[in-house]
Structure formats: structure tokens, C-alpha cells
Write a structure and sequence with these properties.
heterodimer, A: 546 residues, mainly alpha, Rossmann fold, Serine Threonine Protein Phosphatase 5, Tetratricopeptide repeat, 5-stranded parallel beta sheet, 25 helices, globular, B: 225 residues, alpha+beta, Heat Shock Protein 90, 5-stranded mixed beta sheet, 9 strands
């Protein structure tokens, strides 16, 4: 296949001018003229946001600032990188050793320096061919229409192109997992493994076992993978999840420590280690991990002021108040005039000055807390709201504390981990069981509403059931169970009474809301599948055109 | 050397290799440009480019062997069309082929697939191919075919063939390698190591060398399960 590159738009990201020029000259010999350049990660992201590129050639090492992997990660998360773009990371090392850091964001290709024009051309051909072939599938994944993506995937698998079979099976397996179709996923992974022991297929079986809560089997699978493929980082992440699910947080911490030793630059994994060690009261490891997170955060899209406040809280827990205050100062340096960061600092300072016996400064900080929290209003992350509640209790403002606490409990009642965080916070201010009554009451309320709703629904009174749940949702707008049940009823209505525009819109908006409040992927996935089936009946042929 | 000093040294060695590879990249590129600006192929530049290419291959081998030695090595196995790998090897070596005026033939059945590590297998073949060019007179042949439970990748040339002392040793045994004079030996040892890391059930990858080339010179074969 002769590839016409003259119409392609290319971005070169490389900090070293000589190398940039060399690559540009090389592209010239391939008759590529439409070339943009960026000399660092920030400028690269500006260029990517501005123009749709067919190819991005990005050096891994970009000097100070973001590295190539972080550019890719941020571009994907900010959704400024079209799925049609071929993203190539150039590195001076043999792939993929140095880029183990973010397995979640794999580039389309790694190219090792030095490379010549023909090599680049060969890789581009390979990738354009692949992207073109997978276009219908990837387009639907990009749009979030997993049902249609599955349809296209199955259609392509039927064409039986040997060259594309494995990549298709891999995508098909992931899609099945994402929509919660564990049976189909299992079939695919067994089919692949019968042919060859491939780590991603074995991992898939482990994930299925984890989701079916066959925890011993899942743990054995992930451990086996680590043993045979010690640099396959995904298996460490999944093993730590399995240990968490099995209530073995110490083992989870141990595995994350191993993973972080092998691949020290993945900020998300460091965050997980920090939180797990913190939860295990393993102060030294938690401290080290939080510090690393803060350091790695400097150029990462996953940077957050909560990383600083978590470290400060850890110091406060060990009564190292001075170090805690110092950490908050560091945070202010990093986040100048950021109200959320200011509020985090002030809430903790209230407590820290109390620890140090300085009531005056503590009161001053609390005054700041009041102003800032009014300014931020409802736009506060739940962990920050919890900090705020604590500060209120410590300053004898029980009314405000209870008010916030009530909405936190109502909205997050199905988040057991967060309910535990609330309990921990309460006991740290000497109010054990203070919120327990409210938690239990809210739980009961939720169960009652659901039972009532289900019972109405079973009697065929889906309209009444919906009204009831809507009223409950007004009181607990972020409650997952309620929204999920509303979506179920809406789908059922669609199925039994047939689609109308109004019903389609309602179901669609409820599914969207479920996603927004963080309902588990597999639960929404199944419903999305059903929604597509009901609204598309059969995907028409014109969908197939790329 | 005490253990930690030794480790420290090998890390320094590895990072130096990276550094050299960076410089080599620029060097190769400059050589390429200067050579292209000349009217005809200057044998001095041909030599420069060839040597730069060889150095790069040696550095890559060194890095891979360093990683194997430090348990930092991982094969990234997936299924690939062998044609893609042959295209990659050919592209890698293309500038030299042109300069040396060597005729290359490539033969690979459509849809012949292999489970392997794309990067390492391409580089391993590139190493051997680079040598074949050095010893061939005018022709090199690259081919792939199915061989029972294995796929076989073959590189043949029309040179004088492997010397007897190389044919008589086991390339997987580094004790037998002649490290001082045997630059070809190191390449074979490296490729044999990479091959042996490819496993499927009880089958393991391996290499064979002989002088049964259809072109009359050396024949190298890489078998992958």
C-alpha cells in the first residue's frame, strides 16, 4: 500500500533543537510539509488542543516539565486527542522499560532512537492501516456507545482477517468486561488462552473472578502473572484490588510497594500506595508515598491540593504539627490564590494550632474557613467537606457540622468506605457514634424507599414508583441506588410501552446521571447495552460507513 | 567488586550506553545528510554509516543483556504478521543496502503470523542482517515460513559463509564465545538468548547457522514456537 503522506498534519514534540531539525528534515524526505513543532510538554498540549493532527511524534524526555507520557496522558484525559491520531513516543531506550509508569495510557507506537525515514514510514503505514480497520469500533467506544462498538467488533471478527484477529479479540474482551457481560468475556479469554498463554487474556480471567468475588482464584491468577511476567504492571494493580476486596489491606500495600519500586513514576499508583499505607497506619511508608505523589504531581494532570493536605493530616496524626504546617505552606506556594487549596489549609490549620495550644491563631483560621467555605458553596469534594465538618466540631460549631454531615451521609450512603471515613473522623474528635444514628436511619430510609418503589413497580405502577424515587432523589441528589433504580424503571418502560422521544430522553439523561454520580461501570454498561438495543433495534447499515 | 559497587557500576554502564545512543542518533543523521548531499556514494561515508549502525546494534544488545542479567527484562508477547517484522528489518537496514548496492529479496506468505516480542525480534534480526550485508557480495535474502510448530525466519547471503570455528560452537553458551575477536559471536549469542526467551508450552525458540544458503553463502535461521 502506498501511503500518501503529503496531506497529513504532523506535530513534532522535542526539546532538543538539533534533534527537532533532524526529524523535520526526515519528514521532508517523506514529502510531509504540514509540520508543527513544540519544544516542551505545555506547548505540545496547546498545539494538540488547537489543531487536529494525524500524527504526533513525541520525545519521551522533554527536559524540565511534562514528559512525553504525561503529554499523552493529559491529552487523552482532556479529550483533546482524536482517536484517529497516531501518537508515537520516541525514546532513546528500548521500549517499554522507561514508560512502565502509565500502562493505562499506551501510545500507538514506541520508536527507538535512532530511526530512519523508511522505518518511520513503515510504522505509520502499519498504524494507519490498523486505525482505518478499527475505525468503526473505536469511534463508538469514543462516543461511549459500547453496544454499537460490540456490534462492529463482532462484524469484523466474522470477516476473519487473521492479521487483525488478536487485536479485535482483545478489544472485544475489554468491551464485554466493561458492559458486565462476564460470560462472553470468559469465552473470549479462554479461546485466546487455548491458543497461547497471553498475559492480557490471563489477566482478563482474573478480573472476571474478582468481579464474581472468587477472590482466592483471582488472587492466584494475578500472583501467577506477576511471577511469569514481572514487568506487566497491570497485574500488580489488579492483585492489590483483589487483596483489598479480600480485606487484606496489608497485602495490598505490599504489592503496591513492589509495583512502585519497579515503576516509580506512576502517580496514580503512588497515590494508591499512600492511601493504603495511611489506612494501615503505616506512617513511614505513607509519608514517603505522599511526598513522592506531591513531587510527581508537579507536571501531572493528576496533581491535587488534596495530596498536600493528606500529607499534612498524616503529620497531624503523629503530632508533628510543625511539619504539617510546613506542608501547608508548600501547598500555598504551589497553589497561589486557589480557594480550594486555601480552604484545605485553613481547615487543617484550625486543628493544628489547637494542637500547638495557640487558640488565637486557631480561631483566626476558623474565621477564614467560614468565609472560604461560603465562597466555594457546594463545589467542594466530599473529602474536603469532611475536613470542614471536623473543623466545625473542633470549634464547637455543631450546627454547621451536623448540617453538612447530614447531606454527606444522605448523598453517599451507599459508599461504605466513605461512611467509614465519617466514623473515623467522628471518633477523632471524640464523638464516637455521633453520626451512627443518622447513618442507620438514612440506610433504613433508603431501603424503605426502594422497597416501596419496587413494590409499586411490581404492581405495574411504574409511574408512581418513579414519582416516589424522584422525590427521594430530590433529597439525595447523588445517591447511586436511587438513580440506578430510576434508570431501570425508565428502561423497563421503554421496553414494555415502546419507545417515544420523551421516554428515550428520560432514560438517556438518567444513564448519564448514573455515570456522573459514579455508578459502577459494569452496572451502567449492561443498561447502556439494553438502551442501545431498544433504541437502535438493529444497527442500520449506514452506521457501518466509516 | 563488592555487590553494591558492582550494581552501581552496571547502572552507570547502562546510563552511559543511553548517552552514547543519543549521540549516535545525531551522528548517524549527520552522516546521512552529508552523504546525501554528495553527488555519488563516497565509500568513506558508507563506512562511517555502517560502523555507526553497528555501534548502535551493539549498544542495544548490551542494554538488553544488562536487563536480562538484572531481571529487568520482559518480553511483550503478542501476535504479529511476520511480514510486518520483515518490513521493519528491511526499513532499519535500508540506507545501508542502498549504499552497499546490495540486492535484497523478501519472501513471506500472506497472513503468516507469529507470537513474539516485536521490538526484540526485529532488533535481533537486524543485528544478523547487518552482519550479512558486511559479508555478502551482492545479495541478501530474507524469508519466513512455517516449520511444523515453529515459524522460521531466514537470512541468507552470497558471501564466503560462516567460518568453521563459529559453526562448531553452541551460540547459547557464552563460555564458548570468543569475546575478543568474535563480534559476530556476540551478535549470535544475543539473538540466541532472545530466541530462547520465546516459549510456548514446552517448546522454546532457538537459532541455527550453517552454510546452506541458496545464494551460496551463510544461512541464519531463527525458529520461534
Amino acid at each position: 500500500m502506498k501511503l500518501n503522506l503529503s496531506s497529513k498534519k504532523i506535530l513534532i514534540v522535542e526539546d532538543y533543537p538539533v534533534m527537532r531539525k533532524a526529524i523535520k528534515d526526515m519528514l521532508g524526505t517523506l514529502e510531509i510539509q504540514n509540520i508543527a513543532e513544540a519544544d516542551n510538554g505545555l506547548n505540545a498540549l496547546k498545539e494538540i488542543a488547537r489543531g487536529k493532527f494525524d500524527v504526533i511524534l513525541c520525545d519521551y524526555n522533554l527536559g524540565n516539565g511534562k514528559n512525553g507520557q504525561q503529554v499523552l496522558e493529559e491529552a487523552r484525559l482532556r479529550k483533546i486527542l482524536p482517536f484517529t491520531t497516531v501518537f508515537i513516543i520516541i525514546s532513546s531506550e528500548q521500549a517499554p522499560g522507561m514508560v512502565l509508569g502509565a500502562m493505562e495510557n499506551k501510545p500507538d507506537e514506541y520508536l527507538t532512537k535512532p530511526f530512519n525515514a523508511l522505518q518511520l514510514l513503515t510504522r505509520l503505514q502499519k498504524n494507519f492501516r490498523r486505525k482505518e480497520y478499527l475505525h468503526p469500533v473505536e469511534r463508538e467506544i469514543d462516543r461511549g456507545n459500547l453496544a454499537l462498538a460490540i456490534h462492529h467488533c463482532d462484524r469484523l471478527l466474522n470477516e476473519d482477517d487473521k492479521r487483525m484477529r488478536m487485536p479485535l479479540l482483545k478489544i472485544r474482551g475489554e468491551l464485554a468486561l466493561n458492559v458486565g457481560d462476564l460470560t462472553k468475556a470468559g469465552e473470549i479469554y479462554h479461546e485466546v488462552l487455548a491458543e497461547r498463554e497471553l498475559p492480557w487474556a490471563r489477566l482478563g480471567l482474573g478480573i472476571i473472578d474478582l468481579q464474581r468475588r472468587n477472590l482466592d482464584q483471582a488472587i492466584a491468577t494475578f500472583e501467577g502473572l506477576i511471577h511469569s511476567n514481572p514487568l506487566f504492571m497491570d497485574s500488580y494493580d489488579w492483585l492489590s484490588k483483589a487483596y483489598q476486596a479480600d480485606e487484606q489491606p496489608l497485602q495490598a500495600q505490599e504489592i503496591l510497594t513492589q509495583a512502585v519500586d519497579l515503576s516509580p513514576t506512576s502517580i496514580l499508583r503512588q497515590k494508591k500506595l499512600a492511601a493504603t499505607a495511611d489506612q494501615n497506619n503505616n506512617v513511614d511508608i505513607a509519608e514517603q508515598a505522599y511526598k513522592t505523589v506531591v513531587k510527581l504531581g508537579k507536571h501531572s494532570i493528576h496533581k491535587s491540593s488534596s495530596d498536600f493536605s493528606s500529607l499534612a493530616k498524616l503529620y497531624s496524626k503523629t503530632h508533628a504539627s510543625k511539619q504539617a504546617l510546613k506542608t501547608l505552606d508548600d501547598m500555598r506556594q504551589e497553589y497561589i490564590n486557589n480557594p480550594e487549596a486555601e480552604l484545605r489549609a485553613a481547615t487543617l490549620e484550625t486543628e493544628l494550632y489547637q494542637q500547638l495550644g495557640d487558640d488565637k491563631l486557631s480561631r483566626e483560621s476558623f474565621a477564614k474557613v467560614r468565609t472560604l467555605s461560603e465562597e466555594l458553596g457546594k463545589n467542594m469534594p466530599k473529602d474536603l467537606q469532611l475536613d470542614l465538618v471536623k473543623a466545625c466540631f473542633l470549634n464547637d460549631d455543631q450546627e454547621t457540622a451536623d448540617h453538612i454531615l447530614e447531606s454527606l451521609i444522605k448523598n453517599h450512603i451507599d459508599d461504605d468506605q466513605f461512611m467509614d471515613d465519617i466514623r473515623t473522623m467522628q471518633s477523632s474528635v471524640g464523638r464516637d457514634n455521633h453520626s451512627e444514628i443518622l447513618i442507620q436511619k438514612t440506610k433504613q430510609e433508603l431501603i424503605d424507599i426502594n422497597n416501596q418503589g419496587v413494590s409499586l413497580f411490581k404492581q405495574g405502577k411504574s409511574h408512581e414508583a418513579m414519582t416516589l424515587l424522584e422525590r427521594a432523589a430530590a433529597k439525595m441528589p447523588k445517591n447511586k441506588t436511587i438513580i440506578l433504580n430510576m434508570a431501570r424503571i425508565a428502561l423497563h418502560d421503554l421496553k414494555t410501552a415502546g419507545p417515544s422521544e420523551e421516554k428515550i430522553l428520560l432514560a438517556h439523561s438518567l444513564l448519564k446521571r448514573a455515570k456522573q454520580v459514579g455508578v459502577a461501570h459494569d452496572k451502567i454498561g449492561t443498561m447502556q447495552m439494553e438502551f442501545s438495543r431498544l433504541t437502535h433495534a438493529r444497527p442500520a447499515n449506514n452506521h457501518d460507513a466509516a | 567488586m563488592p555487590r553494591n559497587t558492582k550494581q552501581h557500576f552496571s547502572t552507570i554502564l547502562a546510563s552511559t550506553v543511553h548517552d552514547i545512543k543519543n549521540s549516535l542518533g545525531i551522528l548517524q543523521d549527520r552522516i546521512h545528510h552529508i552523504a546525501a548531499s554528495r553527488q555519488h556514494n563516497d565509500p568513506d561515508f558508507m563506512q562511517l554509516e555502517f560502523e555507526a549502525n553497528r555501534m548502535n546494534h551493539s549498544m542495544m544488545q548490551l542494554l538488553a543483556l544488562y536487563k536480562i542479567d538484572n531481571d529487568k527484562f520482559n518480553l511483550d508477547i503478542d501476535e504479529y504478521p511476520l511480514q510486518d517484522i520483515l518490513d521493519e528489518v528491511q526499513a532499519q537496514q535500508a540506507p545501508l543496502l542502498k549504499m552497499n548496492d546490495i540486492k535484497l529479496t523478501v519472501q513471506c506468505p500472506d497472513e503468516l503470523m507469529s507470537f513474539c516480542d516485536y521490538t526484540h525480534i526485529s532488533n535481533a534480526l537486524g543485528t544478523i542482517f547487518n552482519n550479512s550485508q558486511r559479508y555478502s557480495l551482492s545479495q541478501v535474502a530474507l524469508s519466513a515460513d512455517q516449520h511444523g510448530d515453529y515459524v522460521c525466519l531466514t537470512i541468507e547471503d552470497d558471501g564466503a559463509g560462516y567460518p568453521d570455528e563459529l559453526l562448531s560452537i553452541d551460540p547459547t553458551d557464552h563460555e564458548q564465545m570468543d569475546w575478543v575477536s568474535g563480534s559476530t559471536g556476540l551478535g549470535l549469542y544475543f539473538v540466541a538468548t532472545i530466541a530462547s526467551l520465546h516459549q510456548n508450552g514446552d517448546k522454546q525458540g532457538y537459532i541455527r547457522i550453517d552454510n546452506q544458503s541458496r545464494l551460496g553463502g551463510a544461512r541464519f535461521r531463527l525458529f520461534l514456537p
